[in-house]
Write a structure and sequence with these properties.
Blueprint: H1 2-16, H2 39-44, H3 53-56, H4 59-65, H5 81-97, H6 101-112, H7 135-138, H8 146-159, H9 165-179, H10 214-224, H11 229-236, E1 243-244, H12 246-249, E2 269-270, H13 281-288, H14 298-301, H15 307-318, H16 320-336, H17 353-358
Antiparallel strand pairs: 1-2
Helix pairs in contact: 1-16, 5-9, 6-8, 6-9, 11-15, 11-16, 13-15, 15-16
The structure holds protoporphyrin IX containing FE.
Protoporphyrin IX containing FE (HEM) is lined by residues 102-103, 105-106, 109, 145, 207, 209, 218, 235-236, 238-239, 241-245, 248-249, 251, 297, 299.
GO cellular component, one term: chloroplast
Catalytic activity: L-ascorbate + H2O2 = L-dehydroascorbate + 2 H2O
Region (Disordered): 243-266
Length: 359
């Protein structure tokens, strides 16, 4: 009951928040640093060879089938409520047998993180608008291997045409967090999709993992989205899930004692020991400098170095409940960035709201 109320309270705070159009922060787009070519993401399709036929689809199939809308497609209206609920059940089912929680979280994050609060016009402002389904954006170096996540959820999109890509990406991410043992996120739905690859943002809006000044860089990127220091730290806690693979991002070890046997495709370097469990171990492990087999990117390390970030990191390392509360709120905010809700912004459906409050 307490957690239901907490979720409802968080939901109402987020629902009440208006999307700020005021802009005091400096517009500072990141320089593109394509350290890897897209060939890595195509190569990475090979790693999934022992997964289902779904993941075995070749990249050529993906692009030539037009499934990911490489050409202009009709405008997608906002999502159907019942189909959203069924799609969520299908995602849960999928996650029972596959271990794709981390990459689904990354998919939702990378669709939303392109948001620029200094641009008012939709879709030029970027954000959660489904543009990441287009080849041109998937080819951005920072999106290496996210085509695997698209391959995974495209059949769900096909089954539920009344759910937009923009909603499906965010639904998959929030469901993955919850299914990994994380917090319930007060999501709302009704995002409209962009319909043309020309509406994708330019490359270079995503954060880099090893910039010269990690704290300044994180603030440049997250402030551009209208987020604050607390949200930077809370959202970084998503790295409690997943692994980094050198052949994708250039970061991490090829394998460690925690990843050499999977689950899922072996290899990569995780931030935490149990990298399919959402908890506060990311903060605990960075603080303890626990093990060389665990990854700490420069942008992770700075969360315990910069005084403002450190206050939140210390708190989250100590107190998982506070981390969960702040994470849920920040994740919901992130998932709405730049989104155009149909019929009107802030009228998006919270598909859980009635049951949350009643239970
Ligand atoms: C703060 C700036 C951030 C940087 C510089 C960053 C960078 C990275 C890098 C380099 C990887 C490894 C990718 C690969 O090799 O496959 C990664 C993975 C990941 N990131 Fe981030 N990230 C940031 C923030 C976030 C946020 C805010 C979220 C979610 C809310 C997130 C979720 C993830 C997840 C779940 C993975 C694991 C993916 C997998 O295992 O397939 N990241 N990130």
């Amino acid at each position: 009951m307490a957690s239901s109320l907490r979720t409802a309270a968080v939901a109402s705070r987020i629902f009440a928040a208006s999307s700020s159009s005021s802009s005091t922060a400096r517009l500072s787009l990141l320089r593109s640093s394509p350290s890897l070519s897209f060939s890595y993401s195509l190569k990475s399709l090979a790693f999934s060879s022992h997964f289902s036929a779904l993941q075995r689809r070749s990249s050529d199939d993906v692009w030539s089938s037009g499934r990911f809308c490489t050409a202009a497609s009709p405008r997608c209206a906002a999502s159907d409520r019942d189909q959203l609920k069924s799609a969520r059940e299908d995602i849960k089912e999928l996650l029972k047998s596959k271990f794709f929680h981390p990459i689904l979280v990354r998919l939702g994050w990378h669709d939303a993180v392109t948001y620029n609060k200094n641009i008012e016009a939709w879709p030029q402002r970027g954000g959660a608008n489904g543009s990441l389904r287009f080849e041109v954006e998937l080819k951005h170096a920072a999106n290496a291997a996210l085509v695997n996540a698209l391959n995974l959820i495209q059949p769900i999109k096909d089954k539920y045409p009344g759910v937009t890509y923009a909603d499906l990406f965010q639904l998959a991410s929030a469901t993955a967090i919850e299914e990994a043992g994380g917090t319930k996120i007060p999501m709302k739905y009704g995002r409209v999709d962009v319909s043309d690859p020309n509406e994708c943002p330019e490359e270079g809006r995503l954060p880099a993992a090893g910039p010269p000044s990690p704290a300044d860089h994180l603030r440049e990127v997250f402030y551009r989205m209208g987020l604050n220091d607390k949200e930077i730290v809370a959202l970084s806690g998503a790295h409690t899930l997943g692994r980094s693979r050198p052949e994708r991002s250039g970061w991490g070890k090829p394998e460690t004692k925690y990843t050499k046997d999977g689950p899922g495709a072996p290899g990569g370097q995780s931030w935490t020991v149990q990298w399919l469990k959402f908890d506060n171990s990311y903060f605990k492990d960075i603080k303890a400098k626990r093990d060389e087999d665990l990854l700490v990117l420069p942008t992770d390390a700075v969360l315990f170095e910069d005084p403002s970030f450190k206050a939140y990191s210390e708190k989250y390392a100590e107190d998982e409940e506070t981390f969960f509360t702040d994470y849920a709120e920040a994740h919901a905010t992130l998932s709405n960035l730049g989104a155009k809700f149909d019929p009107r912004e802030l009228l998006g459906e919270i598909i859980d709201a009635p049951t949350q409050v009643a239970s």
